[in-house]
Fold these 4 entries.
Entry 1:
Amino acid sequence: PGDLGDGIEFILSRRGVRQHYQVKRQTTKALGWSIAALGASGVLQHIPERIGANSDEFHFVSAMAAPELSELAENARSAGDFARFRSEFLPHGKRMEQWSSLVTPWQPREEMACYDMVKRIHAENISEELLRRQVLARVSAIVNGGAQQAANALVIFALESVNAALTPDTLWSHLATLSLPRRDWASDPHALKAFD
């Protein structure tokens, strides 16, 4: 609601870290998401207000990859500090152009502040079919009930919760109202038998 939803679909709080998610199915270009395409679609402009003044993370998820953003973020995390990042990963040419395209809209922030934000950006891609299979596998292991029913309930709940902060407790409470409680492995006879 309100400004909370600008530039994100949902926030997931995990282990004390707020993860801001922007999800795009695909881009019109078959090449994936370039930094220019992410900028043109409005994905990048809200990152500073979401994670600039805190330790939150920004996650971009799509069926198509965002290789430039992903590589810059991975390089920033592996560099250890801004001086090394700048000297080893932004020597000149195309990479420097990508960096400039990414951080120019974030000015007047200094490059060091931009580097700190880029370290907390994650660009992930996954196909819809693989996502479905992974959700069903994970749900079947933790929910006591029909995996497909629980997965469907979570999808509907997520769609109804756009621009809302979600926590694991929120999700478990919702599933409990549908008689889909957390699986109790300590009391599960099949699990106990496997340890004998």
Note: The radius of gyration is 20 Å.
Entry 2:
Amino acid sequence: SYKPYFTWASTSLVGVSAGGCTWILTLKRQVNVQTKDLDQTNASLISTYEAIADGVVAVNLDGLVIAVNSGFQTMTGLQYRIGEKHSLEADLKSLGSYVSTPDEYSATLDRLTESPDCRGSIEFEITHPQARHVQLNIAPVVSESTNRVFAKLFVFRDLTKEKKLQADLTHAHKLEAVGQTVSSVAHEFNNMLTAV
């Protein structure tokens, strides 16, 4: 008759010598220490991940969310949770209705999501949930053991402040050019008045 593994393992330990029990207890302690170390590392990684200002989400090839931070939810308005299944590409296409250049956005997004190993970026201006300039970077996530793509990483960077600073700098350069032109005209006018 069939006996489950745990029954066989527990009954076979009865005849194990004291040295064997010591080995098992030592192994159990090592496993507990390594588990605790992994838990601490995992907690540190999660804290670091949440501290990133960029919106980050990783989705496996079946659409299962394997990582997401609060920046992603803030930037896109999409409420994803780890372990949920979503069609991120479809959700990103639906964001196209809030983009200032929807046709260009849609075409570039199609190109970047057509296959699992595509990578690239797209910049766009989104008007919802909050007006902002966004850069979306998409990259494949490759397993070290199999050397195959198992997920896609989507990183949303808010460029709103950068774009505003660039616009302000451009405006300042224009004002400087106008000031130099006015100064030059005033100097020439002054020369003519001096001659008169």
Note: The radius of gyration is 30 Å.
Entry 3:
Amino acid sequence: AGALSLDAALEWDAARNSQPMAVRVKASRLALDGLRLGPARQPLAQWKALELTDVDLAWPAARVALGTVRLEEPRVQAGRDGDGRWMLQTWLRERPARAASAASEASAAPSTPDTTKAADAGPASAAPAWQVTVGEVRIERGGLRWTDRALARPVDLVVSGLDLRLQNLAPLAAVQPDMPLALQARLAQADRGGLR
């Protein structure tokens, strides 16, 4: 659960002649406050506020620019169980055996001239690589509880007071710009009270 608010504009240009459809979304502010995931008494992930400012998304230009991403008081509980399964693996559904065997049979089937030609042709036109930039990422008063029961000596750690500031983030850029980083946090062995 959480509350979403935004101030945005949508520009849509229909496809004409050889020009493809184009969509552009600009938002001066997008916020998702009070998000909680998992059991109500002890959520696995939650935050007080998530705010994105100066959002500019262009498609099919494949460009996303964000001025600021600010995450206030995030709390996450993560880890592995005694069998070495990650927490997220328990959330995923198992793939049905019938669908898995049908997929393996399809991949083992001999290729016909038509399927070979289609595979050799490749995409009709290569889509542009996505460009993603973020002027500043801020995490304020964050916390993480990390539990790892798969180790010979189980680990139960708490990271608290996490403050992070990262500038000029360009995660998909071939050449990374300088990204000033400031980080502060406290690390301690967890008590039985959990993450506060």
Note: The radius of gyration is 23 Å.
Entry 4:
Amino acid sequence: GNNNGVPDDCELLIPHATIPKDPRIKNVGVNDAVVFFKVISPAEQLTEITDDGIRQPEKENDLFWFEQEADEETVHANNFNPNWIQLTSVAENGTIVDFPGVNDEGRGKVYIFGYHTRVEPEETTETLFDKVQNKKYGSKTIGPNEVETIHIESYAIQADEIRRAGINVDTNAEIPEQDLAYIYNTFCNQNSENLK
């Protein structure tokens, strides 16, 4: 905080430092719901450095690993809660998009998840992740006072009467990725401006 151009400890995330987080969704409605998270993780031009010190080719990527509480500090990989199903068939998942506000460049990597079962009124899901770990990297695009913000959106769709080609989508048991992706694409993605 002394503005001498050298980042102080509190101004700089140390490589592999972790921060506790606990995103979860509580159904405050009166009907069972199918719920989703869309995470936009800030992205920069990075030269990532592996655990054995090898510099990777520069590419645009997000800055953080998303991990579970029990993950060791030496685990350097995403480890989302398996009860949150990553919607890999949704086109936007895994892409880097323009998203003003996550950093100076307004660029972020998208992760989309659906919860594995319907959520009853007053029920709360498990956390999507429990902590965020800074990756180890070099970057020429991160400014000395730049703020990197993880943006998380949640969506809830009433669990009953979801139809595909005139047939109800069964949400009474485990909901497979294919059905979660259909629900997300039909109700959340196409109508996202009306859901915020």
Note: DSSP finds two helices and twelve strands in the chain.
